[in-house]
Amino acid sequence: MSAHIINEESKNLVAKDNGNHHNLPIYMYLLTLLSAIGGLLFGYDTGVVSGAMILLRDYFSLNHVWQELIVSVTIGGAWAFSLVAGILSEKLGRKPVILIASVVFTAGAIVMGFSVTREMLLVGRLTVGIGIGLSSMIVPMYIGEVAPSGRRGTLVTLNTCFVTGGQLIASIVAGAFSTDKKSGWRYMLGLAGIPSFIQFCGFLFMPESPRWLVKMEKYEKAIEVLRSVWGNSVDVEPEFQSIKNSSLEHERQQAKLGSKPVLFKILLDPFVRNALIVGCALQIFQQISGINIVMYYSATIIEMSGIKNETTVIWLAAVTAGVNFICTFIGLALVERCGRRPLVLSSSGGVTASLCLFAIGFHLIDAYSPSLDYRDPVVNGSICYTFNSCSECIDSGKCGYCFMDLSSGPANGTCLLADPDKINVALMGSCNSTSLPDPLTWAVNWCPSNYTWVIFLSLVLYLFFFAFGLGPMPWTINAEFYPQWAHSTCYSTTTSMNWFFNMLISMSFLTFTQALTRYGTFWMYAIFAFIGWIYFMLVLPETKGRNPEDVESLFVSP
Fold first, then answer.
1. How far is Cα 366 from Cα 385, in angstroms, rounded to an integer?
2. What are the tens digits of pLDDT across the range 287-320?
3. In a 3-state reduction of DSSP, which class is residue 74?
4. Burial of 124 by CB count in 10 Å (0-12 exposed, 13-18 middle, 19+ buried)?
5. N or C end: fewer C-beta atoms under 10 angstroms in the chain?
6. Straight-line distance from the first to the last Cα atom of the chain, in angstroms, rounded to the nearest whole number
7. DSSP assignment of 144-165
8. pTM to 2 decimals?
9. What does 324-385 look like in DSSP terms, one character per residue?
């Protein structure tokens, strides 16, 4: 018998049975909601660092390197432990890994909230990253293994709704505490420990994955779990037999391989290998299309467009997070009606167009940047003395624009050296103070512009298109792409790809804006997104209603 095809009778029974899951018991939804708190924590951390960074930057005098480090250390921890999560989930089970993730995240939130140095803050961010890495890999997989195939797409996509919901909540919390320049960031970062504690308490009473129980030969317990989450009125025997057949086939194949790892068998199997390649591509293109630049640095991007009031910047970032959250429900509504492939393709096309609009907007801001009115003698001989406009000045990464912010427009603008230890003040000259008399203004990351609206429109359009397709579908498709014997290893691998490229992009964004200019950086992301659209058009199969054990049929064609 083929390594992946269960007998036709069992397949037909499963398909027939899954078509009748119109009324799942409350327990299934409660289980999904508690699991998806992991997604909410993922989203909260993504969203809160955007607003908190505006305050952290001044409180700890963070330069570009430290800002990128504060963001990326969390992602690095998530990447490393998304790999570890696959191993732990096979050894301990899915439920214990979710409990461990809750404890680790709670500890990290406490450390961040009580940080007194930037090094302590860095440790807290790393700890939170470990928790996110564990939960981001295990939660969608757990939901996918417990849910019936007829509802799997909807329930896994619900986890992504929690991600975007967490981003929205974080943005609102950041806006609420944005006026507290001294301690507001502590509340923003520390409050993340509350939902993770709730998840820990609730998940103590949740069941283990039936697929893992079958693998451990705990057959009666697996049937009991299926009945409790699917409802006693549903015949779970066909699903149980399908899972059991796949598990037994895996054991036979593993016996042939001996001590060789599962990944070795995956690479030898052309069907599962192709599924893994496409699954990794989904996660990679999700990241290199720039989503976490938009989320981690949304407040910074809005500030770059020319808005100087920090509270306004943070609240505008909250509006974009709201668009992201609301539009995720489009994917939730359409995933079982339209299928996964159409959502990915339409989303990729819209994201590409939005990134082009970003680039055009920043090009307009630079092209019509205010000219310098005079050159301050205090910077004579420095690089700041050579620039002719505000955009040239701030793009250097070493200078800032000092000007009078009048209702008629900027006046008396000059380029001064930024203090490398305190970027919110000039090293010398008229803006050499943290408390400047109104309307004297110091701009180190932005220039006054009439094209701010283009960037805000780009943000809204980007998140609208991303939210229903490229956001949830990589997680949904990967949750149903692989047979049971390869599920943990493949899902862990694709999740680690997501976090690895997330880390690369977030670590390099501010550096790229200096090296390639802001509009050049967004043209680069637009090219990446366009390549992804072409790739998915050519190779992405439809997984709607398919059983994970039947992956071979998805890749029988070249």
1. 19
2. 999 887 887 777 778 877 778 777 888 888 888 8
3. helix
4. buried
5. C
6. 22
7. HHHS-HHHHHHHHHHHHHHHHH
8. 0.74
9. HHHHHHHHHHHTTTT-HHHHHHHHHHHHHHHHHHHHHHHHHHHHTPPBPS---GGGTTSGGG
